[in-house]
Amino acid sequence: MDFTFTEEQVALRDSINRFLMKEAAPELLREISETSGGRSRELHAKIAAQGITGLSVPEAQGGVGLGDIDWTLVTEELGYHAIPDSLVESSYVATALLCNVQEAGALREQWLPRVADGTAHISLEHPANPCVADAHLADLILAFRAGKDDALELHAVPGTGLQRSTQVSIDASRRLAILPQKLAASTRLLTGAGVQAIADATLDRAALAVAGQLVGLAQRMLDVSVDYVAQRKQFGKPIGSFQAVKHHLADVVTKIEFARPVLYRAALALQRGDRHRAVLISHAKLAAADAAWTAARKGIQVHGACGYTWEVDLQMYMKRAWVLDAAWGDRGFHKARLGDALMGNGAPLGPAATLQ
Amino acid sequence: MDLDFTPQQQAFRTEVRAWLRANVPKSPLASYDTREGFEQHRAWEAKLAAGGYSCVIWPKDLGGRGSDLNEWLIFEEEYHAVDAPMRVNQNGIMLLGPTLMEFGTAEQKAHFLPRMARCDDMWAQGWSEPNAGSDMAAITSRAIREGDEYVLTGQKTWSTRAVFANWLFGLFRSDPDSTRHKGLTYLLVPMDAVGITVRPIRALNGKQAFAEVFFDDVRVSVANRLGEEGQGWNVAMATAGFERGLLLRSPARFQRTAKRLVELYRRYQATADRDPSIRDGVLKAWMDAEAYNLASYHTVGRVAKGHRVGAEASANKIFWSELDLQMHETAMRILGPRAELIDDPEVHEWLEGFLFAQAGPIYAGTNEIQRNIIAERVLGLPKS
Predict the structure, then answer these.
(1) Are residues B257 and B221 in the same domain?
(2) Do A4 and B302 touch (CB under 8 A)?
(3) B108 found inside a domain
C-alpha cells in the first residue's frame, strides 16, 4: 500500500511542465488558435521531439510504452497548459486502442511509429461525442459506428479525401467536425460483440484523460486567480486580503484536493483492469468537472469585469473546462453509470469496498 | 503506486476483524452524552484497550500497538464496518494524545497515555471561552504561577463531555501582561480539584453534551504543564493540523454512513425519486466518502515519505464536515415526515447524526476559519 507516485513519475511530470511553460505560453496558444487550422507544426514538432507523442507507443514502434498512471500526470500538465485535444486523443487514447485490438496489427505497424515521431495524427469518433476533434488533421480516423442491428462496428477511415463538416466551438482551441453519415464498407475493421467492449474501454480511457485535463485546468485557474487577487487593489488593499474573496479560492483548493486522489485511483484501476474501474473513472470525471467548473466560476468572480474579457487568459481555461465537462460522457452519462453500479448487486459499499 | 495491502496488512485486518466480531457489543450502547451511555462506552473502550486496539498507532509501552498509519486506516475500516461504538474518549486519544506524545515529558507520557488508552482517565478540552471562540488567542482565563503551582481563574466553555470527564486539558494565560498568542500555557487539570464548577449545557439533542467550566483559584501542580511556560499556543497548534487533518475523523466512518444512505435510498426509492435531487445527493455522498478515503491513503503515503501535514488539513476538515452534513440531510429528506420520530429505530441514528452534523462545520475551528487558513497558508494571500 503506497498511494503515491515514484520519483521517476514526478520527474516526468515536472519536465513536461517546464517544457510547456517555456514553449506553450498562453500568448502563443492564443495566436495559434486564431489561425484557421488552429495548430502549429512547429509546436507539434517540439512536443514530439520532447517524446510526448510517443509516450504510449510501444518501444517496438519507437515509443516508450507508458501506461495510464504516467499518462494521468501528463494529462494534468496538458490541461494546466491548455494544450488542444489532438495530442491526448491521438498519442494516448487512439494509440492505446490500436495496441489493445489484436486485429489492428497492420495499422499499428503503419501508424504508431509516425504517431511517435509526430508526423501522423489519429482522431476518434465515438457515439458519446457528436463531433470528432481534429478530424482536419487526421491521417487516420478510428470510428465507432452503429451497424447491423445497431451493434457497434469499428472503422479505420483514412483521412485523405474524407469529407468533413466543420463545427465551430466556443473553445477557440477546439477544431471539430462531423464525418459523413455513410462510411465506405472497405473501412470496416471490426464487427461483432467485442466491439462494444473496445468502445467502452476507449471511452473509459478518454474520460480519464479528460478528467486529468480538468484537474490541471482547475489548478491553472486557481493559480491565475491567486495572482490576480494578490495584485489587484481596492479600498487600499489587495482584494485577496478580503475574506469573501479568500473563501471563494479556498473552496477551489478543497475541490482540487479531493478530485486528485480520485483521479489517481481511477488511473490505477484502468491500468490494472480493476473490477470497479468504470465506476471509479466516472467518479473521477465528475469530481474533476466539478473542481474545474468551480474554479471557473470562482475564478471569473474574483477577476471581476476583467474575467469577462477576451484579453485575460482566464477565458481560455474556462472555455476548455466548460466544453471538456461533456466530452467523452457528459455528467448525465457518468452519473447514470455510477448510480446503476451503486444500486446493483455487488456495489462497492462500505469501508474500503473499492480497495479490496 | 500500489493500492494492494501487503500480506502483513492483510493479516492485521483479519486479526482485527476476528477480534471485533467476537467483542463488539451486540446491541447499540446508550448515547455517550448520558451518564449511563458514557459508562457503557467507557467499558467498551477499556475492553478495546485490553485487546490492544484502543490506540493502534501509539507505541506499545504507552498503551498502543506500534502500528503505522496504513494499519490505523485498516483498523478504522474494520471498526466501522461492524458498526462499533463511537469513541467516547476521542478528545483524549485523538487530540491530547498526539500532543502529549510530542511535547510531554517521559513521566507525563508514561503516566497519562496508558491511562487514557484504557479510559481510566476521561478527557475534556478547555479551549473556548465566552469571548474567545474563533478568536482563540483572545482567551483571558489565567494560570498565575505561585511556587510549584499555578492558580487558575476564569471560565471555559463548549467543553465536550466535561460533565462526565475527570481531566481537562486547556490553554491559560500565565503572563497577565501578555496579549494574543504570547504568554499562554498548556495545562492538564484534574476536574476534582477544589474550585472547579461544571455547569452543563444542553445540546441540540437535549442531552448534556457539553459544559461551562469555572475556575475559582484552582491550584494545579507545575508538573501538569505540557511544554514550556508561555509556549502554550505553539504546543496547541503544533499538532492541531495533524489531528484535524487525519486522525479526528477517519474515512471509514463516512463510508459506513454512505453505505447506509445507499441502502436507505434503495428501500424508499419509489417515494424518494419524487424529488429528483435526492438520488443526486445519494451519489454525491458515496463519491465524497470515497474521495475522502482516497485522500487519506494519499496523505498517509506522503507522510510515510516524510511529508508533514500542514495547512491542507484545513481542506480535510471542511470536506468531512460538509460531507457529514450533506449525507444526513439527504437521509432526512428520504425519511420524509417520519424523520422527526426520534424513537423510531430506523430514524434514530439518522436524526441524532443529523443534529450532530450541524456542529461539524463549527467545532475544531469553524469552516470559515479553515478557509482563511487555506487562503493564507496554502495560497499565500495576505492577512485581512
Answers:
(1) no
(2) yes
(3) no
Question: How near does any CA of chain B get to the CA of A268, in Å?
Answer: 8
Contact B283 A249 (CB under 8 A): no
> Which of A3, A222, A247 lies nearest to residue B298, judging by beta carbons?
A3
Q: Is the ipTM of this complex over 0.85?
A: yes
Q: What are B279-337's pLDDT values in tens digits?
A: 999 999 999 999 999 999 999 999 999 888 888 899 999 999 999 999 999 999 999 99
| pTM of the entire predicted model | 0.97
Task: Report yes or no: B194 and B215 within 8 Å, Cβ to Cβ.
Answer: no
Q: Which residues contact B193 (CB under 8 A, 6 or more apart)?
A: B218, B219, B220
Contacts of B297 in chain A (CB under 8 A): 1, 3, 261, 355
| CB–CB contact A265 B371 (8 Å) | no
**Are the beta carbons of B315 and A287 separated by less than 8 Å?**
no
**H helices within chain B, ranges in order?**
7-23, 35-50, 69-81, 90, 97-103, 106-117, 232-242, 251-267, 269-272, 277-304, 313-335, 345-357, 367-373
Taking CB atoms and an 8 Å cutoff, what residues of chain B touch A261?
291, 294-295, 297-298
Per the domain annotation, does B192 fall within a domain?
A: yes
* Three-point CA angle A73, A78, A81, nearest 5°: 130
Closest residue on chain B to A238 (Cα): B382
Q: Domains, chain A, ranges and CATH?
A: 196-343 (1.20.140.10)
Give, in degrees to the nearest 5, the angle at Cα B8 between B7 and B14. 90
Cβ distance of A258 and B291 shorter than 8 Å = yes
- Active site residue ranges of B: 243
The number of domains in chain B is 3
| Whether B149 and B181 share a structural domain | yes
**Number of other residues whose CB lies within 10 A of the CB of residue A331:** 16
Determine the pLDDT at residue A210.
98
Which residue among A241, A249, A254 sits closest to B382, beta carbon to beta carbon? A241
- Inform me whether the C-beta atom of residue B374 falls under 8 Å from chain A C-beta atoms: yes
Domain that residue B228 falls in: 123-233
pLDDT value, residue B242: 62
Examine the domain organization and report whether B253 and B374 are in the same domain.
yes
Q: What is the model's pLDDT at position B309?
A: 83
Query: B67 with B137, same domain?
Result: no
Considering only CB atoms, A261 lies closest to which of B9, B291, B314, namely B291
Written as one letter, the residue type at B217 is D
What is the mean pLDDT of the segment spanning A199-205?
Answer: 98
Q: Are A243 and B4 within 8 A, CB to CB?
A: no
CATH number at residue B145: 2.40.110.10
CATH code for the domain of B77: 1.10.540.10
Q: Percent of chain B scored above 90 by pLDDT?
A: 92
Q: Which residues contact B118 (CB under 8 A, 6 or more apart)?
A: B45, B46, B49, B50, B54, B63
> Number of residue pairs across A and B with CB atoms under 8 Å?
177
